[in-house]
Specification:
single chain; 0% strand; 6 helices; mainly alpha
């Protein structure tokens, strides 16, 4: 790539600052979500709130540092790369929306299939990987860890 196509230092700092603002917003949402977790008073003295809130504080602190001094980063993606970059969060939201109605296994299947396909896996291999990934995590959570997972309308 020639130098004329390289993003300017100002543009890369702006991209870094936009990423930092997104991470700060994520830290706020995550911290607020963690702060409202209810728990029995007789349980762990710190309760389940401490870990997500502490992670949110660390993420916010590091994001503020990154905002103040973003350093070098890639320019903002365009064209097909932008589509791929935006497809992952959209796919994640779709997977989360499917979690209750379709169940854990179907949700993880969709997320894995889409991610594999976005990153260039042939459809057949993405399907095999998605089935294996969904089955693996279902077995680990349901049978090894004995965690309740919604089966959804498909399997419930």
């Amino acid at each position: 790539m020639s130098d004329s196509h390289q993003p300017s230092a100002r543009a890369t700092r702006l991209t870094g600052r936009i990423a930092a603002l997104i991470l700060i917003a994520l830290a706020l949402v995550y911290g607020l979500g963690g702060s409202v977790i209810e728990y029995a008073f007789a349980s762990d003295p710190l309760g389940p709130r401490v870990f997500p809130v502490a992670l949110a504080v660390v993420l916010a602190g590091l994001s503020i540092l990154y905002f103040l001094k973003p350093g070098a980063c890639e320019g903002f993606p365009t064209g097909p790369l932008l589509v791929k970059v935006l497809a992952i969060p959209v796919l994640t939201v779709i997977s989360i929306a499917l979690f209750e109605p379709a169940g854990f296994a179907a949700s993880i299947f969709v997320l894995t299939l889409g991610t594999g396909y976005i990153f260039g896996a042939p459809l057949k291999l993405a399907l095999i990987g998605a089935v294996g990934h969904a089955a693996l995590w279902w077995l680990i959570f349901s049978y090894l860890l004995e965690v309740y997972l919604p089966a959804g309308m498909l399997f419930g």
